[in-house]
Amino acid sequence: MNISRRFAPWILLAPFLATFAVFFVYPVFQSLLLACRQTFGNTASAWVGLDNFSRLAVDPMFWKAVANTFVFTLGSVFIQLPLALLLAILLQSPGIRGRGFYRLALFSPAMVGIPFSATMFAVIFEKRTGVLNQVLHRVVGFDLDYSWLQEHVMWALIVAALWMYTGFNMVFFSAALQNVRRDVAEAAIIDGAGPWNRFLHVTLPAIRPVAGFVVLLSVIGSFQLFELPWLMLNSTAGPDNRGLTVVMYLYQVGFETGNLGHASAVGWVLTVILAALAAVQRWSARGEEMGT
Amino acid sequence: MSSSPSTHAGSRWTPESLLPISAWMVLLLAVASSFAVALWPSRPTSGRVMWTFAKPLFERYVPIIDRWNQSSTPKVDLRMLGLVPLERRMLASFMSGTPSADLIEVERRVAARAFAGPVDSVGFLDLTEEMRKRGLLEILNPPSLSPWTSRGRIFGLPHDVHPVMLGYRADLVEAAGIDVSQIHTWDDLARVMAPLMADKDGDGQPDRYLINMWDNHEDHLELLLLQAGGAYFDENERPVIDSPQNAHVLAKVVSWCHGPDRIAADAPDFMASGNKLKADGYVVCTFMPDWMCDVWKHELPSLAGKIKLMPLPAWSPTGRRTSVWGGTMLGIPRTAARSQADVDELMTFAEHLYISLDLARELYRAGGIITPVRPHWSDPVFDEPDPYFCGQSPGRMYINMAPHVPPRTASPYNVFAKMRVMDALVKLSAEAKQTKTWDLAALEAIAIRHLRSAQRQVEAQLDSNVFLRKDGAGG
């Protein structure tokens, strides 16, 4: 009886541990080894040490991918999240009728999936027949042949992501706004604080842990950007790699030029970047917890 | 006083005494799901398995394979997979050395990836000697073998030729009194068809443009480069990107798409928006490989009787009047051919399917695709007039072009090189627009500069490949 009780947790954990070891620990270990090899074709593989990492350091395409990804990330953090917070605050304010409907309407783009959104925005940004050019042409005589997906790739992607994820992030902020203490807010009003000061000194500190989490999610999601540009740009990185992201670059070197080792090195660099960002977020969250 | 057995907790065995009930549930679920997977009905495999990726091809093959299965061996089980799953499963099988299908039909982009690595690690069987032994090299159109040839070895049977002609709006051209027989070069086309670009509606823009293409369309650019004698790689798979021919084509494409001599507009293929522009007559001429004829018939039925074909205008008065776009092959994975008997069996079937006159006729009638088997070119089916093309015989016109199709390479770096050349084109366009440079010689000078940069990037990729360093191009 005692023995069976002693082993029961391990038996219960065994399926998870086995799965975790086979599908996570082993692949991670293998991918680390793979990052130190060069592959070519189906079976050819050679040990190259840290060459894949040193090549990345001088590869202009990799740095272009990093720069594009940073631009998209900045767009997500500094445009999408403030807009999401603003919408959450607006929908929180008293006297709004049909609050549930607006929340659903704003959240619904997150439910339709990336392929649908990407196709829709590719059609919107299409030159000549695209909705945007048609409207601009009729209103201000804009050039119908202007190609948004050629001239402003990253902006087009940021706008598409804005439509998809602003409502999604708004839900997090709406939940966080429930934590703002009414008595503190009322005290601030009595003390003569205006809306901006109340937001800065009452609302923002109350939602900061959730905001930090949303920023982290947004940054991780931005760094993993692949499907949206891949579908909007017709399975390419766009003209002159203007839509190339880090994950897209990983895919290209791994599956188009067939060097899985180099792709694995890209994956590890991405992992280190994301781990560092997560560590910064945890560190700042700990500071807040200690301060409260 | 005797006590009942139930009061002796240690003497009666219950499942809970061995494991908690939750652990039993986990075990039960594991066993049940294992049985479910094991007993799940799967489609039985009989004989050899062949994968294809295109529904029209699948539909053409079914009756031919049914007839084969009634009278011959091995029995063949044809299956259709999407192109992406097919590619994934094929490459996974090649990488792991595990069996997949016995015959795999793939298109050019996918096949080039399978050809990467040293020759003896290519996942497809080297068919060169088998094809020579069976006399196939003599009857197949030579340029049609080039996409499936890597380092001098042939890894697949060609399915098609895919010559490119120019499809034009005969209704518009003839109404304007234009005689297309005067057109021999691209410059002739711009000159002779110029009246069609008049601005009759007075909006300050031409009512229509002469060529359907744009500077971001990689397939259009590749077919023009090949037609002009340019390429990404030479026959030894070394990059030749910064060639004068490539620079000339890039410069010309930029002058077609932008600036005062613009004659091109973008009406994308396979898209409703592009089809509307074509139907409206916004573009007059479109690149038409043989397979595109069938696409137009299905997607643009309103243009029946309004389209005609003509050879591509050449880059010089004596230049090539065609090019090539696309391609499919049938290969035998190494894992499927463990003995010479296997090779014989599979090659016999592959030859029956691909070399048969039945299939050649069927592919042409149903898909507009001409066969690479030269003895079949004299078949009357290719002379049948087609009402969609104003009674022309597209089959005969494409066959006349077939021997002149430019050869291509099967480098695994094709996609990478193509993208770098596209980057060069985009940079050239941007620079031309910024500096308002439209003179062809000046554009060519800028093009060479950007193509050299592209060449260096491709060379850097090749040089960093330790396998190419060891034993020459391709390992």
Structural summary, described in words:
The complex is a heterodimer of chains A (292) and B (475). Chain A is mainly α. Chain A has one domain (52-291): MetI-like (MetI-like fold). Helices cover 75% and strands 3% of the residues of chain A. Chain A has a two-stranded antiparallel ribbon with strand order 1-2. The longest helix of chain A has 33 residues, at 2-34. Chain B has 475 residues and is of the alpha/beta class. Chain B folds into three domains: 48-161 and 327-404, 3-Layer(aba) Sandwich (D-Maltodextrin-Binding Protein, domain 2), CATH 3.40.190; 163-215 and 261-324, Periplasmic binding protein-like II (D-Maltodextrin-Binding Protein, domain 2, 3-Layer(aba) Sandwich), CATH 3.40.190.10; 219-257 and 413-475, no CATH class. Chain B has helices spanning 15-18, 21-39, 55-71, 83-96, 108-114, 128-133, 136-139, 170-175, 186-192, 218-227, 244-257, 272-279, 290-299, 340-355, 357-367, 394-401, 414-435, 440-463, 466-471, and strands at 48-52, 76-80, 103-107, 149-150, 153-154, 157-158, 163-169, 209-212, 264-265, 283-289, 307-311, 323-324, 328-331. In chain B, strands 7, 8, 9, 10, 11 and 12 form a six-stranded mixed beta sheet that branches. A five-stranded mixed beta sheet of chain B has the order 2-1-3-13-6. In chain B, strands 4-5 form a two-stranded antiparallel sheet. In chain B, helix 3 packs antiparallel against helix 15 (357-367) and helix 11 crosses helix 18. The longest helix of chain B is centred in the last third of the chain and has 24 residues, at 440-463. Chain B is globular and about 100 Å long.
